[in-house]
Amino acid sequence: MKKLLFVFSLAFICCTSLYAQDNSYNLVPFPAQFNGGDGQFVVNGQTKIIVTAKDALLKPIAQSLASALKTASKLNLVVAPAAPPTATNTIFIRLNKALGLGNEGYKLVVGKERVILESATPQGAFYGLQTILQLLPTAVFSPMPVENVAWTMPVCQIQDKPRFVHRGLMLDVARHFMPASFVKKYIDLLALHKMNVLHWHLTDDQGWRIEIKKYPKLTQVGSKRKETLVGHYSENYPQKYDGKEYGGFYTQAEIKDIVKYAQSKYVTIIPEIELPGHATAALAAYPELGCEPSKNYQVGTKWGVMYDVFCPTEKTFTFLQDVLTEVMALFPSKYVHIGGDECPKDAWKKSTFCQELIKKQGLKDEHELQSYFIKRIEKFVNSKGKSIIGWDEILEGGVAPNATVMSWRGTSGGIEAAKQKHNVIMTPTTYYYLDYYQGNPAKEPLAIGGYLPIEKVYGYDPADGFDEASKKYILGVQGNLWTEYVPTPEQVEYMTFPRATAIAESAWMPSGVKNFEDFAMRLKEHLKRLDYLKVNYSKRILDIRA
Ligand code: TNX
């Protein structure tokens, strides 16, 4: 069996390379199984898209295809409820529960006379639609009509499904606020890459960005900072501030609207509320939640890890439960991310309350106090039928029983958590930190540090370092964009793409079949799609391969 798989993989690699040399096969992420053929399906003014009444859930997908073609080609494709199976010049889109490709998979057969897209769910059909759009000329992504294009798709057969269920990007809107319209664009770009999770980092030391009705000061006070550090926060750099007030937050109405939008693109938004650390913005609003309630806490104006954190008092737990209750009501996601990272223990060490609590609970030290904190929060979240995700520090002092661990400090946290039979999401700094430099730092805009060119991002296999028995705990992967040095949407796009395209391929393609050369060739055409979508991606890959 192993030998067979090996031969299959080799054949796969050869085929994918071959196909990619032909511009018509620039699929990203590349499908799990692909067979090319001869000839083309020609789309013209008479082409019909068929969705029967029983599959009415697929209508929005048919309409999206028709509307993309209408915008770019002016062709007016009709979406109709029936046609004989032998009808020509027809695109059939239908549900088929017996496909065997899971909830997100689809089968696509492009013939000269007709196209058939089948999936077990609308989500599968949505990914099939992304593939159809990528098989069509790149101009189908144009927001305006494009002349002199032959609107064809190459004959091919595809059976496709993702490797991982969690295929995400994390966007930090706490350090720099991103407008709601841009968050929607980011969701579009996730969907284009068949990614399905937006991890929304909504709170941190430098800003609280989600309206909580019960605690209005969180946004009245916590969403604004007096000024922002310019340049690098390391002690070795001059510490200069811009002297300008900075702020922003999302109302609950805006959040509902964004969640609904994401649902239409099959993107789940996982909200993150940071605790017990990265909490200074909340403490500035409600100082009674800190270990020194009389302290004049201020929303952070520089980056890094801050000394002040939530104090594990009953007042704090009530506050956090109230906040999480409102958050869980806004986000249908089964998961809530509760942070858990970089919580310095100094404030707890100095606090008599914390020291007594440690004794009372029979805990060994402040690390076990952090574990106590997270476990209590987990219990509450579980009682509401949801689950927590935490950064890998939640392993400290004993991981909460049902937690999913997001492995960021390298891969070891994830590997360890999986050994303890916890689900994990791999997002290591070494491969997936999108705030790191992607080219020569001397030629790049200021970034947090590190060096992470797309070749390295692409080369990572998320199962590296896991033993056979642990691999099944890998839920998936995620690129993280922290925004200390990313003040605008344009800069978010620059840092995210095309590295996120490489992550999307690792999230989707079967293990062992990726090939960077092949990817780079397909990427060249894919970047033209991003041009049409007005994405300010980094052009480095084009320069180095020109
Ligand atoms: C570490 S990754 C952090 C963030 C910073 C990031 C910068 C993680 C869980 N915490 O607070 O923004 O480094 O790369």
TrEMBL record:
Enzyme Commission number(s) of this protein: 3.2.1.52
GO cellular component entries: membrane
Catalysed conversion reaction: Hydrolysis of terminal non-reducing N-acetyl-D-hexosamine residues in N-acetyl-beta-D-hexosaminides
Signal peptide annotation: 1-20
Gene Ontology molecular function, alphabetical: beta-N-acetylhexosaminidase activity
Residues of the Glycoside hydrolase family 20 catalytic domain: 164-510
Keywords for the protein's UniProt record, in alphabetical order: Glycosidase, Hydrolase, Signal
Residues of the active site: 342
GO terms (BP aspect): carbohydrate metabolic process; glycosaminoglycan metabolic process
Domain Beta-hexosaminidase bacterial type N-terminal: 25-160
Domain of life: Bacteria
Family under the similarity heading: Belongs to the glycosyl hydrolase 20 family.
Protein name: beta-N-acetylhexosaminidase
Shown chain mapped onto the complete sequence: 1 to 546 of 769
